[in-house]
Amino acid sequence: MTRKKRRLYILLLCGLGLGSATALTLTAFQDNLVFFRSPSDIMREAPPANRAFRLGGLVEAGSLERGTGADGKPTANFRVTDGAHVIRVSYAGVLPDLFREGQGVVTLGMMQPDGIFRAREVLARHDETYMPPEVADALKRAGHWNPAQGAAPPPAEWNTAPRRGG
Amino acid sequence: MIGELGHFALALGCILALAQAVLPLLGAHRHDARLMALASPLAGAQLIAIASAFGALLWAFAVNDTTISNVVLNSHSAKPLIYKFSGAWGNHEGSMVLWVLILALCGGAVAAFGRDLPSALQARVIGILGLIAAGFLGFIIFTSNPFERVWPPPMDGQGLNPLLQDLGLALHPPMLYLGYVGYAVTFAFAVAALLEGRVDAAWGRWVRPWSLAAWSFLTLGIALGSWWAYYELGWGGYWFWDPVENASLLPWLIGAALLHSSIVVEKRESLKIWTVLLAILAFAMSLLGTFLVRSGVLNSVHAFANDPARGVFILGLLMAYVAGALALFAWRAPRLGGTGVFAPISREGGLVLNNLLLCSITAVVLVGTLWPMFADILFGAKISVGAPFFNAATAPLAIPLVAAMAVGPLLAWKRADLAGALQRLWWVGALAVAAAFLTLLIAGYHVWPALGFAAAAWLIAGAAADILDRIAAFRRPSQAWNRARGLPRAAWGGAVAHAGMGVMFAGLAGMGLATDALVELKPGQSTRLAGYEWRLESIRDVQGPNWSSRRATITVLDGGQVVTVLTPEKRFFPVGRMNTTEAAIHTNALRDLYAVLGDERDGGGVVRLHHNPLAPWIWFGAGIMALGGGLSLSDRRIRVSAPSRKAAPAPA
User: How many Å lie between the alpha carbon of A95 and the closest alpha carbon of chain B?
Assistant: First the structure.
């Protein structure tokens, strides 16, 4: 095989690799990008059904209850707030060690027709002083916290929003 | 006093590294033998300085010197000594010192064992290593001084995050850094080759053991981290496609490609330019991993103290090293043209395919990892990319890679007979199909586990077929034993590593069939999962050395016979006020029984129970892969021509 022909083969192969990687990435992106929504985002625009997204905010103080799901599994029910709005969350699973009322939380799941967010995952952090950046951003957008003015205010003061059904 | 000595040793190391960077490179450029001869002593001196600094840091942790802020933040007197030591590198500053120590060890190894390298090449390699060391030492001294004092000293430290007080995690960072830093050496060789304008088989023989050692350690480091996540975090999973996990996977993938292409350089003097590029990319990925972990730009479970200044500094280093190397590559690479010519169907062709697929997977993982960051910067969109994306995007590339893994080693160099190779693999293919059907028959309609078991059978039997073919076990059985003994270790190593990958696939497929249950039990009540009866006996208080805990006792029965007693716990560490979940695991190598205690409610408790078939095989397989790397490393040919076998400092 001549050098020129070999170079052509190599270029073709590289193009094939690059092309397939791009195509795979794009198709996988289409179905699997997970968007972050704050309670206010959800109130403003109903999230598409049957598509998982991440809900984040602060766990409302005093909102954590133990319950039993429809399938008989033990659940943890709590409310997530960004100060302006509140979303009820139901999670069938063991809550991570760093889950606390009044602290930031990010959950992954889907919105149910009854307006309850069914979480599949409640994301844990290694560090309890850590505020997930999306949550910090959601709080800022809701106009309840300017991080330049120090730490987040105590969660009892957040719950100014009218509660929905709970 | 010891702290100041350590700080001084770091500064001294930085100056020595600068000298090590400038003088030998200048000497090699001017053909000045005296300047070039400075390379080895400088590398040795730098090693001594950094080792002293690391020793000082270990000392400060051992005696719990609370005037040093790093000790205050990460240690406590009431902690077992081993975790005092591991605490020294369980934090940002200390782990960077470990990083440069390993780099200095590599430099020392090139100096000590590289005497038969051409002196200009050796001087250049050591010089580049010095340049890298100087950058990172500067980073430590200017942004992350591990010896910073606090005054007045507090009574005691704040303790190490209890999640990190664990043997697996004590070893995880050193293994990972041995891998990352090993790629610094292949990088240095690549840049030195570009400066020399020459790549030959001898260069390949030197790069190969380093890339082998780096890859083997990286394999072990990643496996340890994944194993730790499995047993310590209590989520029941082993790989979460977390950005930081991906950051360690990227250099592993490129490193695997480098490992294979350096074989071609060594054997056939072909693919030279490509191998040099891969060596640069492998180190770029290592640096990128370091940057992603330290800067906190990505949202991850790994929360090192996030400081923008550090991120910018590392980004600067990344840009300087990688952009510099790539510019040099663009300028000098055309000189390195290969001489070996090969047909598309040949061992070389197979290795090109391997490289192509590995690089495509790397590209996909890289984009998936970095996209959330770019989406945030460019569009202000808060998105995340999770496991479904990575599974969907990498699987179509992994399937042909696995398919080729068994065929490639049977192809001859230069020009091969694909039909013949496939003919010799017919029984391997039959086994793989049988494995898939057997899975579907036993476990029901689960496509991915069936594919996984097929891949496992294909790879393990394929490795066996490779060895049987090489020793001609069927054609001349009488001489098979002698031929097996005469077979180079590299051949064994390759087969063992490929088989290890197969074992890992079996574990992954087994985990695909895992079942779990979340139940609320009162003492005395039981539930059934995967054919076992799980009975909660009690939930009691237990006191540990530096923690107190609630411990559940769960008896697992199989047909009335007690299989094991699991004791999952929720621990509370008063120092640092942290809770941790301790999963209880019972393994018999074929399956794990895994229990996690959740919250307690009216006398009973919520427990999550898992039955994980073949779970240990994942890490076992990774261990076999690393062992295969080690076997190749001990090959006589590598030892004789490139006496760098002790390059990899400590044994695993």
Answer: 7
